[in-house]
Amino acid sequence: MKTLLFSCLAVLTLNSCFQSSAEAQSVWYTDFEAAQKVAQSTNRPILIHFHAHWCNPCKQMESQVFPSRQVQQQLQQSVVAVKINSEHNPKLTSRFGVTSLPTDLFIEPSGKEIMQSVGYRGVNDYVQLVMRARTRYTDILALRNATPAMNPNESLSQKDQPVKPASVSGLMLEGYCPVTLWKSRRWEKGSQQFEAQYKGQQYRFVSAEALKRFKESPGRYVPQFLGCDPVVVWETDRAVAGDIGFGAFYDERLYLFTSNENRQRFKSAPDNFIKTQVVLHVDQIESVVR
């Protein structure tokens, strides 16, 4: 009798494991084009999970994170999820610039990037990541829809004049040369003679040589997060312009902060704030009164 009872329990447990595994698999698409069509018809963001068979953190997420009912429910509610084996899909991997695994990339149905996360994430962390991506997509849509159509013959009063985004109301880095800063950690003013734009932001340089270097690899020299405070971006999902008085280099990249407190918090655990890369645009940047 005991043997029979044990056998029944073992069968029930095995069936439960198979069911959980099947549910986890059913949440995920394996074809990007199919997932994109569903996202376009349901107006949901797409989550692309890039992985490979040799990637140990990928295997850990597959066995420890994705079978979680909490994760499955959040995926079903918030995104259209698709798993992409980077080895089998090199073109798609290259298209989105994926160089590390695992990478979780959130994009709009049109293919425009929203945010990405690199590396292993536990159950709770992954759920929060998906929720944040969904919220960010909702905010992006609200921002687009909030722009009213205006009669070209109407004139705005001084009170109604739109506020310029902080990033385009003046020179980035207050006109200091980003190449000189990166090379020698020295603040030196650039010249009007040597100017360039990058992602809608204006920079000045001390020489034609500095300008040339910048154009060859602009991402190396510009402030990350379009000059916004990464601590504020991570904690509030707001794009608030940092101050050159509170700057810091980490991994040869420049970050600007709104306060010394945020700079110190970043220095104590930088990877906490840059593990997730949020895609920002200049029209989202807020200025702060200092």
UniProtKB/TrEMBL annotation:
The keyword Signal applies. Residues 18-135 form the Thioredoxin domain. Coiled coil: none annotated. Keywords: Signal. InterPro entries: AGR/TXD, Thioredoxin-like_sf, Thioredoxin_domain. Residues 1-24 form the signal peptide. It comes from the Bacteria. PANTHER family: ANTERIOR GRADIENT PROTEIN-RELATED, THIOREDOXIN DOMAIN-CONTAINING PROTEIN. This is Thioredoxin-1. It comes from Thalassoglobus polymorphus.
